[in-house]
What we know:
By secondary structure, the chain is mainly beta. It has one domain (7-119, 132-209, 220-277, 286-524): Porin, CATH 2.40.160.100. The chain has 3 helices and 21 strands. The chain has an 18-stranded antiparallel barrel. The protein has a two-stranded antiparallel ribbon with strand order 9-10. 35% of the residues are buried.
Amino acid sequence: MKRFAAWAFGAALLAGSTQAAATGFTDIGDDLRSHVRSMFDLHGQFRLRGEMFYNLDLDRGPTPSGQLLFPVPLSDPKGQSLYAADFRFRADLAVYAPGGGVAAKVRLDVPDNLALGAFPEGVPSASTSQKSPEFVASLKRAYMEVLTPVGVFAGGRMGNTWGLGMLANGGDCADCDSGDSADRIAFITPVAGHVWAVAFDFSGSGPFVPRGVQNRVIEVDASDDVRSLTFAVLNFKNDLARERRRKADKSTFEYGAYFAYRWQDKDIPISYLPVTVDQPLTEASVMKRGYRAAAGDVWARLSLPFGRIEVEAAVLYGYYEQVSLLPGALLRDPSESIQWGVAVESDFGRPESAFGGGVDLGVASGDPAPGFGVRQTNPLATAAQPGDLDGPQVNPPLDTSANNFRFHPDYRVDRILFREIIGTVTDAVYIRPHVRYTLLDLGTSQFTLSLTGIASFALESASTPGGQAPLGVELDPTLAYRHKDGFGLSLEHGVLFPLAGLDNPQLNMPAKPAQMLRARATYTF
């Protein structure tokens, strides 16, 4: 129940790429061209970053359930500062068959956001080396593309991005940490000046048992499978075409829409619920679910000679015939939810101009249940109390709907409030003006200074720790260096001025400002 709509398609969205590095549906099959012999193409990125957080618990004490808004130093609960540093090496490999009609692609993160200093060899104070983590490589994507006379066929585990990435986000940005993928079979074809697609997703399967002496497994019940079907249409131009039109002082309008449907008839909750003792799988473990969900999303972009305006809007609907996760403890009433979200981005200023800026807007529907309902990972958790930061948005039989839309966590709008404290944009509206100035342009490299401000308000006051709608005002300045060889360096600061929605009225403690500092180095190849 935690992500009542995060089936939200993520699952539904059309993946693929020219390289495994890109995840836009518009890229599927775009690089299938004639080759004399087999070809290999390697792209990727190395990222190293360090962070400092100051007072992200806002010095406002715990919530009624004993939660802090952010961790504090273990040895000094009154301390203010925490530190983090990690690195990631991402490799995107594509292999093309002779003739260029077939390609196989894979993405590996080796390692995936590994904390610096983790896994010391032996006693930490005497360690002279770091042990390898148990899972060194994280397989993000592995799929193939086939060009046929009537379109492009794609199948495997593919990345997943749509529009702005508000709902489905492949996690390709320099500071992204997760990213969506889907086990999918898709077919894409151009008709009447548009790209049309249909995709079938294996969104959930299992539980599995060993398959004889083979090094394989077999699913013991297909009735609990989760499947998704998506239809999409797009009218778009590639980057080169848009730039050519911009130089000719022409505007470019692009748009797309999709509809996705997901279903699950039965469920075996014991296969995924947290339990203290392993339980055998029996016929009694299978229970009715009757899950049906639908998602619709529209996206549009207007590229002007002097800027860009882009918008994405989504509506999600979900229905559970049976909400209970405990066999034998069934509930009478079904659960039904409707969620919606909108994101708008604008950016004005010609590429050759030193100045640029715009205003972004976003809104995500809310739910009157206490807490924002972002990080609640235990489906059996008890209901949140008024004043809690997080907690289930469903509390059957009294409350059987979860109407809070959640932006994808890799869709970044700030650095402290939504990213670190709440976890993502949900049950809120924000306005985000931003400006940038090119301090120095050396031809092969560039220094840029930018400033973003974010004012945020809750849609449902009952969801906030302070019981009030105003959440905070945040200022995020950035100094960035970019070189044409792919190296980038950025220094990012953030300061949050919390408002009444983050106060602690139970303890009569106002929230105090928080700060963060991040340094990030990347090499993209």
